[in-house]
Amino acid sequence: MKVILFGASKAGENYISNHPNIEVLAFADNDSAKHGSSFMGYPVIAPADISSYDIDNIIITSQWIDQIHGQLTNDLRIPKAKVIVPSKQAVKAALPFEDKRTLSFAQTLLRTLNRFCQTRDIVFCLDSGTLLGAVRDKGLIAWDDDIDLAVDKTNFAKLQSALPELSKVLTEQFDVDWNIVIINVNGIDSCINLEFANSSTSAYVQFDVSIQCRESLEGYSELLSSGGLFFAPAKHFDNYEPITFLDETFLAPFDKEGFLTFMYGAWETPKKTTQITEYENRRASMPSPKGGIKIQKHTITAKGI
To answer: pLDDT tens digits, residue range 38-82?
Structure first.
C-alpha cells in the first residue's frame, strides 16, 4: 500500500514502526518551514503537492485530525475513502506498562517526582490518561504509553528553574540515561518531557513523562502545547483535590470525575482502542493555524543544557 503520512511527527514515526508493510512515499505537513526537508529519510511536502503522487491512502498522523481531514477532502478534493484516521494505538509506541519491570520503574518515578515537587513547593496534578487510570483502575492503565501531568504557568516556571536539580536526582536514582526536553510551541515554553534511554544494565520499555502547562483563559483551561485544540472548563484546574495513588497523596483536578466525563465521555468503561475524534475535549471546528504549529525543543541532560 502506497501512502503519504500527513504530519511529520513522532506519531508518524510510530505509525511506520507499527506498520512495516506500508510503502511511505512522503510526509505532508502544514509547517512551511519543513517543506523541502526530509523526515525519517522521506521528503516533507506541502499539502498542495499531494496530488502529484500516485497513492492509495493518506494517513493523518497529527493531532489536528478534524482540520486536516477537512483540508484534504474539502480544499484539496481528495476522496474521503482515501483518508485514514488511525486509532491512537496505531500511532503510539510499544505498551510499556504491560511490562512488569517497566511498570515498577514508572511507579517509582512518579513517586520520586511527587516528593521532589512537594519539597520544593511545586504544585502539579495528574492529567488525562494517568488521571483516568488513578481514578478508575487505581493504577497506570496497562495500554497507556506515557504519564500525563499538568501545572499552571507559575509552577511551570518554578519547575523549569529546578530542572538541573531534577536531572541530578533522576540520574542518581535510576540506572538509565535521562533527557529533559523543553518543548516550545509558537514561541511559548509549553511542555516538559522526561525521556530516557536504557543503559547497558537496564531493559525498560520506553515511555515519556509529559508535564503540560495549562493556562486558564476566559473560563477554560487551555493545554498550551496543543495550540488551543484541547481544553477543559477552568474550574477543574483552578483548584485541585487530593487523591490517593500509588500509596501516596497526589493532586487531581477539582471534580475529577466531571473532568473525565468532559474529556472521555463514558470514562468508567475501559476502552483499549480509541481515536482522537472520540475525545470530547477538543475543538473539532477550530481551524489549524496558518503555517502550522511551530515547535522547538531544547534538552537538559545530566551534563547540563
So the answer is: 999 999 999 999 999 999 999 999 878 888 898 999 999 999 999
Most confident of 25-34, 57-66, 87-96, 148-157: 148-157
Partner residues linked to 297 by β-bridges: 183
Instruction: Please say whether the beta carbons of 215 and 237 come within 8 A.
Output: no
Measured over the CA atoms of residue 301, residue 122, residue 152 and residue 248, the dihedral's sign is positive
256 is written with which cell numbers? 475529577
Q: Which CATH architecture does the domain made up of 2-91 adopt?
A: 3-Layer(aba) Sandwich (3.40)
Domain boundaries in the chain? 2-91, 96-301
Asked whether the beta carbons of 26 and 53 are under 8 A apart, the reply is yes
- Other C-beta atoms closer than 10 Å to the C-beta of 249 total 11
* 241: Cβ contacts below 8 Å, ≥ 6 apart: 251, 252, 253, 254, 255, 256
Chain centroid to Cα 285, Å, comes to 21
pLDDT (tens digit, 9 = 90+) per residue, 171-194? 999 999 999 999 998 889 999 999
